[in-house]
TrEMBL record:
Residue numbers spanned by region Disordered: 268-321
Name under which the protein is recorded: DUF3027 domain-containing protein
Species assigned in the record: Mycolicibacterium aichiense
InterPro entries xref list: DUF3027
Top-level division of the source organism's lineage: Bacteria
Length: 321
């Protein structure tokens, strides 16, 4: 026989046996006994009876709704026990347990894991953990040529520098973040920050993949992946049909249109001979009102002209000065 199989069978949890009918009747009938145990333990906090469940062949649990401030949905659990041939049950324990709808506190988190990105406020102090793998002593090589060369020249200016692990974690975090190639903004455009005029590459090893955006209309002051992109790329073409007009617009509503009527003198005036001799024949472009008869005009003038006063200097009718 296989010893491995025997070991598995030996360690398998045994199924709880059901109580006999007599013991089950005694355990199920201990409802009021369980209720009284809760009253003695916690006062008048017992609510509706929720039922009984058998734990094994000698124990059962009675449950009651708990009426306690701040414990909405919690239950009282009273464990009772009885042996074969007993005529009553005994109370083993009384405990307050959460029900299916109970409001529970969140899982406990160690203090050094409670601070999340964005929790740091002005005036807060946050020391790195002991032996933080993201940092390395300043006198060790980090693998970043810019940092290593600078540290060698100035004589270990910083006590700790970013380690290779810290740099890799940072690059992965930036690459997968909101300004990486898989972000919704980057997937909505074909242009990338690698060839954008608003992007300034970082120095050191991280400069091989990342830069800082200097476009205030885009990801200004944020570190962006070279494969990130947005609609404010420096090579984005101007849309057609936009721009300022060639001439300033004017409001024709402020103009007053006046109809010019030709006078009799303008219509009957003869053109100058010199101008007539020099001007070629040009067809008329406007209709000139037909001039009235000169004789009729003279008659009207004679009838409407007042009589000249008698006396020295008076001229005869029909004479002009």
């Amino acid at each position: 026989m296989d010893s491995t199989l025997d070991a598995k069978e030996a360690t398998a949890p045994a199924q709880a046996a059901a109580p006999s009918d007599a013991v089950a009747a005694v355990l199920s009938g201990a409802v009021e006994q369980a209720r009284q145990a809760i009253v003695e333990h916690s006062g008048d906090t017992v609510g509706d009876y929720l039922g009984v469940s058998f734990e094994d062949e000698t124990a059962a649990t009675h449950r009651f709704l708990a009426n306690m401030p701040g414990y909405q949905g919690w239950q009282w659990a009273v464990v009772v026990a009885a042996y074969e041939g007993a005529d009553h049950a005994t109370v083993s324990e009384v405990v307050l347990v959460p029900g299916p709808t109970a409001l529970l506190a969140p899982a406990w988190v160690p203090w050094d894991e409670r601070i999340k990105p964005g929790d740091l406020s002005p005036g807060d102090l946050l020391a790195p953990g002991k032996d933080d793998p993201r940092l390395a002593p300043g006198y060790t090589a980090t693998g970043d040529p810019l940092i290593d060369d600078t540290a060698f020249e100035v004589g270990f200016g910083r006590r700790q520098v970013l380690s290779a692990l810290g740099r890799d974690e940072t690059a992965q975090r930036w690459h997968d973040g909101d300004h990486g190639p898989d972000s919704p903004m980057a997937r909505a455009t074909k242009r990338v920050c690698r060839d954008c005029g608003f992007m300034v590459p970082l120095a050191g090893a991280l400069g091989a993949m990342f830069g800082v955006c200097c476009n205030e209309m885009a990801a200004d002051s944020h570190v962006v992946d070279f494969e990130y992109g947005c609609g404010a790329h420096s090579d984005t073409p101007q849309p057609a049909g936009t721009g300022s007009p060639l001439y300033d617009p004017y409001d024709d509503g402020v103009l007053e249109v006046v109809e010019v009527v030709a006078t009799v003198a303008d219509a009957t005036a003869a053109p100058d001979d010199s101008e007539a001799s020099q001007t070629p024949d040009v067809p008329a472009t406007a209709e000139v009102p037909e001039s009235p008869d000169v004789s009729e005009t003279a008659e009207v003038a004679d009838t409407e002209t007042p009589e000249a006063p008698d006396g020295p200097g008076a001229s005869e009718p029909g004479e002009q000065d």
